[in-house]
Amino acid sequence: MINKYNVPLMRNAFLDEDSVRKDLAEFILNAGKFSMGDQCRKFESNFADWTDSKYAVLVNSGGSANLVMLQVLKNLGKLNEGDKIGFTALTWSTNVFPIMQHGFVPMPIDIKPELLNSSYDQVVDSIEKNNLKCLFLTNVLGYSSDLPRIKNYCDSNGVLLLEDNCESLGTILWDDSRTGSHGLMSSHSFFIAHHMSTIEGGMVLTDDFEVYEALKMARANGWDRDLSENTQQKLRTKHGIIDEFRSKYTFYDIGFNIRPTEITGFLGNHQLKFLTQNIQKRIENYSKILKACAKNNNLIKFNHNLHKSISNFAMVFIFKDESIMLKSKEKFDKNGIEIRPIIAGNMTKQPFYYKYNLPKQKLPNTEFVDKCGFYCGNYPDMTNEDLELIIKSLN
Fold first, then answer.
1. Residue 307 pairs with which residues in a beta bridge?
2. 1 has a pLDDT exceeding 60
3. Same fold, 17-272 and 276-394
4. For 255-284, what is each residue's pLDDT tens digit?
5. For residues 111 and 125, what is the distance between their CA atoms, to the nearest angstrom?
6. 276-394: CATH, from 3.90.1150.10, 3.40.50.10490, 3.40.50.300, 3.40.50.970
7. For 202, which of 65, 81, 238, 308 could close a Cys bridge (C-beta 3.0–4.6 Å)?
């Protein structure tokens, strides 16, 4: 299929696509198995090392990563049905769905346009007004809240913190920490348009061993096959499972079948070798666009005080009013630059939110960004001509 855009949201599924396809074909021809195995475990280990995390659990999508994180909090008794979870109002559907599916109460938190995320004060205000037991913050398109300060507040006040880092892999904060390293768990996505691709695929990171074991169990049917020998023995002794014959078909807690395939693991290991280079090229691209944005008085300027480097897969533009946005949208369309709303806009305006009568809040800033913003792609194989066309469209 021929893409009608000069600058599509994404151009290729992989960095150096021809080489990846050849290597993948050879792997498929020679692989002994395709269900989750050595390639997946190797990718988990390699990704944990790359992100300076203790543990990584590979699943079949970023959405599944969000789903299993919330299930684990329930399985471990860290949250109970009816508990309120605050979420970034500018987000994706699969951040809110698991909150609902597990019987928790989703509470939207407004953002600051110049941060693209909820500020520290907005987060603390929502926790205290709504008696939140947990935060599920989305690190939006390379940007984030002040995660080090928010983590300190949560630790001091017994509030659980989760991060959706699917859009910000590689962003470095003011204290040299990474986005995705502050929550009890964080989710990552390897969908084709993201920082690195396994076609579909997701990962959960954690530094907590108990959570790590619970994630592996919830990923695969609620059984103990992937757990450490010590954890297995404790479970089997507790529940009176005395022989191997029964142990493989004993289910200890609520789980899913969201396991990845060896193809996911192979692609992850293949693409991880180029991730640093991949991210650096996106940072360079975005830096050129930000210089052009600084000259455009019709754009909201982002606050970069919280970050040392912004790693994203999209160029974000928020205009000062909707009429300017619509004119700019026409320019981008005319020049063949594919654009889309910022994530999915104000999540509380989605049809499902009304259908299930979920809690409403006044979200003026999220609504403003929804009406006055859009984004285009940012990927390593962008050319100078692509970048110049985006800059021309901004001017």
1. 173
2. no
3. no
4. 999 999 999 999 999 999 999 999 999 999
5. 12
6. 3.90.1150.10
7. 65
